[in-house]
Design goal:
It is a single chain. By secondary structure, this protein is an alpha+beta fold. The protein folds into 5 domains: about 1-145, Rossmann fold; about 160-210 and about 495-615, Topoisomerase I, domain 2, CATH 1.10.460.10; about 215-285 and about 420-490, Topoisomerase I, domain 3, CATH 2.70.20; about 290-415, Orthogonal Bundle (Topoisomerase I, domain 4); about 625-715, no CATH class.
């Protein structure tokens, strides 16, 4: 018996429909003339919790950290136990297994981990289903691979899952305990390998905005008349730093100097000379089809959709067989799919009342853009329409809009390049340099579909506007007569706050936020931090856990007080994306067959050790209450002991300060125990400060009191 294991029921049903009749349905499986199809519900296995390795780890204690499993364990998810039993029984009966997980590293792992967990030794083949329409599935059935070819993909996903466990489990406990030692009794600080650097992006951006001081600067534009043609053109003064005071960004901020220059330029002689002129024909190919991140960013900017909404909508279109697999990080297409272009374009051209119809009708199905590149394809490809015709009227607004974005990007692959002339000129006038540039369109090509009013929806729309002027034909050495000058005022603007869409873009383009310049260059081509499937959920989780507030129609993101507390408590190695981005690069390389999970996880374990140690001395603002007079970091908390109530420092065991209770407050005039050496702040003279009027008698807690303290400050 051949057994197909799909990642989810919808894929299983679509796969079964393309296998020979007869069909017989059971609970969690479909029997066909070509084999039995079953399915999982995503990850039916989960990583074991610390207490499932050792019961005593259920209590959170700093001395138990870091927790480093010697042998990793998986546990069957309770919610999927019944289906897991179905899959297990079918695997036992099978002669051959076909792995039908989604075509990415996570999809590879979630079926492989079930096979490994059950000790499967039967032959396994791999089917790569990039779309759920019948044609795509039948094509995939005719191209089964050896599952062993995808081992690097599984190892990469396995290393990622275990690294997330090591960082999340250990550092969340370490810094939650640090917060509780500072008096934040009910605060839990979840820390993630990707989540925390993402949160830090928002915190740092907000502080940039808070500390921003606007500055006024001046721009001087002059109009010149070309001596040969008599045509006028505009050029901008480029002041020389040697002769004009400029700020660190090269801007003219001295108003007196700006006005003096404007007056000087109006004086005779008024003859300028062209000292440089360039005219180049340039071509821009159409933008690539969408990866999930690119689709989420554009839909967020254009429609205000949150990343998770875009993913959910794309998933729905996929399950309706209208578009291909949505969780794709690829922007390229296999050459073999080019044969479907006439059918897809014909379907789109038949959409009456939609702009897609006219665009598709004018497309040339024989053209091959740069998107058709097998060398850029791994397990999956860019998101495109399938050969299944769509009825736009039956789609809800989000589905229709997302479909139209995907379809337009596909149609663009069959349009000519955008062709224009780029001109640049420099002229000398009064010993100063003026610069002008222009852009003259020759052929709109694919850009005809992207025009919205005066501009385009492309990333370089602002640049295009700056170059939209037309310069008269000229050459080096030509004369130009000064006509007039206009002094303009500008004011620097603070950076804009993130929205879910732009934060996701920041995660994708993480090299822009990397601190180390060498790493920045290395990571320019990395796919960012997180995965296509997880970025949206990470942002959503930060909002749900109240680390981020999302306000207004655009869901503008601002950090909460807890976010500041967490980011300030952590060392830079956890809050800057440098390390995480480098780890993502190594995971990406592992998926390509370079490196091993063992070496990668050894580095993660060392990182966990380092940061758990740093948590012991983390500086966290006190959570309220009576500050400890000995260490200055903790607050005094009331406990019940064998001999009655007493007060102890929340920074225990680093600080062992205790005090008797007097009327519901700590009595610092009674017996106490000072903190251990090295844990108290020092005065300027280097001596330990003592509580006001406190006698210098030591106090040793009873065994019961010590146990109470242990229970209080190590509880999860």
């Amino acid at each position: 018996m051949r057994l197909y294991i799909a990642e989810k029921p919808s894929v299983g049903r679509a796969l079964a429909a393309c296998l020979p009749q007869p069909h017989r349905k059971g609970s969690g499986w479909i029997e066909t003339g070509g084999g039995v199809v079953t399915w999982l519900f995503g990850h039916v296995l989960r990583q074991a919790e610390p207490e499932e390795y050792d019961a005593r780890l259920k209590r959170w204690r700093a001395e138990d950290l870091p927790i480093l499993p010697e042998e990793w364990r998986l546990v069957v998810n309770e919610s999927a136990a019944q289906q897991f039993g179905v899959v297990k029984g079918l695997i036992e009966r099978a002669d051959e297994i076909v792995h039908g997980g989604d075509p990415d590293r996570e999809g590879q792992l979630l079926v492989d981990e079930v096979l490994d967990y059950l000790g499967n030794t039967k032959p396994v083949r791999r089917i790569l289903i990039n779309a759920l329409d019948d044609k795509s599935i039948r094509d995939a059935l005719g191209d089964l691979r050896d599952n062993a070819d995808f081992l690097p993909l599984k190892l990469s996903a396995l290393a990622r899952a275990r690294a997330d466990w090591l960082v999340g489990m250990n550092l969340s406990r370490a810094y939650t305990l640090a917060a509780r030692r500072a008096g934040h009794a009910r605060l839990v600080l979840p820390i993630g390998r990707v989540k925390t650097p993402t949160l830090a992006l928002v915190v740092r951006r907000e502080r940039e905005i808070e500390n921003f001081k606007p500055a006024t600067y001046y721009l001087l534009d002059a109009v010149f008349r070309h001596e040969g043609t008599g045509e006028s053109f505009r050029a901008r003064w480029k002041p020389s730093e040697e002769r004009t005071p400029l700020d660190a960004e090269g801007r003219l901020v001295d108003e007196a100097a700006a006005r003096a220059a404007a007056e000087q330029f109006g004086a005779a002689p008024q003859d300028g000379k062209i000292v440089k002129y360039e005219r180049k024909k340039k071509e821009e190919p159409p933008p690539l089809p969408f990866s999930l991140s690119a689709l989420q960013v554009l839909a967020g900017k254009r429609y205000g959709y949150e990343p998770q909404q875009v993913l959910d909508t794309a998933q729905k279109l996929y399950e309706e067989k209208l578009t291909t697999y949505p969780r794709s990080d690829a922007e390229y297409l296999p050459r073999s799919q080019h044969k479907d272009a006439p059918k897809i374009l014909s379907n789109l051209a038949a959409l009456e009342g939609s702009a897609l119809a006219a665009w598709a009708a004018a497309a040339d199905a024989s053209k091959k853009s740069r998107a058709w590149n097998d060398e850029k394809i791994t397990a999956h490809h860019a998101i495109i329409p399938t050969t299944v015709p769509v009825n736009l009227a039956r789609l809800g607004e989000p589905e229709r809009r997302i479909y139209e974005l995907i379809a337009r990007a596909y149609i663009a692959q069959f349009y000519p390049n955008y062709v224009y002339d780029q001109t640049k000129a420099e002229l000398s006038y009064h010993g100063e340099t003026f610069a002008a540039r222009g852009r003259t369109e020759r052929a709109a090509g694919w850009r005809a579909m992207y025009r919205t009013g005066k501009s385009t929806e492309t990333d370089d729309a602002e640049k295009e506007d700056e170059e939209s002027g037309v310069l008269p034909p000229m050459k080096k050495g030509d004369g130009a007569e000064f006509v007039s000058a206009a002094l303009g005022t500008r004011q620097t603007k603070p950076p804009t706050r993130f929205t879910p869409a732009t934060l996701l873009q920041g995660m994708k383009e993480i090299h822009k936020y990397v601190k180390d310049e060498a790493a920045k260059k290395m990571l320019r081509d990395v796919s960012g931090i997180g995965t296509e499937a997880t970025r949206a959920s990470i942002i959503e989780d930060l909002i749900r856990r109240k680390f981020l507030n999302a306000a207004g129609k655009k869901k503008v993101l601002t950090p909460t007080d807890t976010a500041y507390l967490l980011i300030d408590a952590l060392p830079d190695t956890m809050t800057y994306p440098d390390a995480t981005a480098i780890w993502e690069d190594r995971l990406h390389s592992m998926a390509a067959g370079e490196g091993s999970p063992e070496a990668f996880l050894a580095g993660q374990a060392a990182f966990a050790r380092e940061l758990c140690a740093a948590a012991l001395s983390a500086q966290i603002a006190c959570g309220g209450g009576v500050p400890c007079p000995a260490c200055g970091r903790g607050v005094m908390l009331k406990r019940k002991g064998k001999h009655g109530d007493f007060w102890g420092c929340s920074a225990f065991p680093q600080c062992r300060m205790t005090a008797n209770d007097k009327g519901g407050a700590p009595d610092f005039t009674g017996k106490r125990i000072p903190p251990a050496a090295g844990n108290a702040p020092h005065t300027a003279e280097g001596t330990r400060p003592a509580a006001a009027d406190a006698p210098r008698r030591s106090y040793t807690p009873t065994v019961d009191e010590q146990a109470e303290m242990d229970a209080l400050f190590s509880g999860g």
